[in-house]
Amino acid sequence: MKLSVVVPTYNAAEFIENTYADIKFQIDKMGVDYEFLFRDDCGPDNTREKLKEIAKRDKKVRLFFNKYNQGLGYNLNQLFKDAQGDIVVYFDADLSFDVKRIPDFLNEIKLDKADVCVGSKYKGIRGRIPLNRLIPSRIYYLMNRIMFEVRVRDIGSGFVMIKKKFLDNIDLTSKRFAVHIELFHKLTKEGARIREIPIKYIHQEGGSFKMMKHGPSTLEETWQYWWRSKNE
Q1: What is the extent of the structural domain holding 130?
Q2: How far apart are CA 154 and CA 141, in angstroms?
Q3: Can you give the pLDDT at residue 210?
Q4: How far apart are CA 108 and CA 193, in angstroms?
Q5: Which helix (H) or strand (E) holds 176?
Q6: Cβ within 8 Å of residue 149, ≥6 positions away
Q7: What is the pTM (predicted TM-score) of this model?
Q8: Most-buried pick from 85, 151, 180, 197 (CB within 10 A)?
Q9: Cβ–Cβ under 8 Å, residues 93 and 16
């Protein structure tokens, strides 16, 4: 069994070294075969240089660089396709979740209790989440439950583990943050058993998703995906 760790990056130079080191430390203790895949989305900082330094030290690291900004959805879709493991685990680059839970997630899947494990900040012990993030998130969850019959509470979770065989049948078309609901909708349609696992979460003020900047476009993209899905 091989584990593929996929991490999309954008303006992640400040923390990508720590993210890599924290994940590697945890997985090395588990004694499993694994690979790292990073895909950088052409941010203006020196993330690429940081990633190249990491790859020089670690032959398990594979790097992919976009020629221009493509969006989170494109990055995830390509990372899922390029992953060579039997199980894929996706992390946000800022690593807001406790990586010590990786063995618990993997055990759930190895024991065939789930096909997908989602780290849920809404079911676990969480750090401070501002109301201007919490309330819209709950509204978005209810909207997706009605539109797509998806019951995943933490739609935008930055810690998700998936059996690769389900990803092989999925092509993600949303280019940006609506990719999360598209992923869970298509996994549900494939018959994947999705389990949300309570997990400690630390709110990051500098995360990639900005409510005022990305919220309206995410709603628009979600409606566009809903319309496409009804006509497939």
Answers
A1: 2-230
A2: 8
A3: 46
A4: 11
A5: none
A6: 188
A7: 0.89
A8: 180
A9: yes
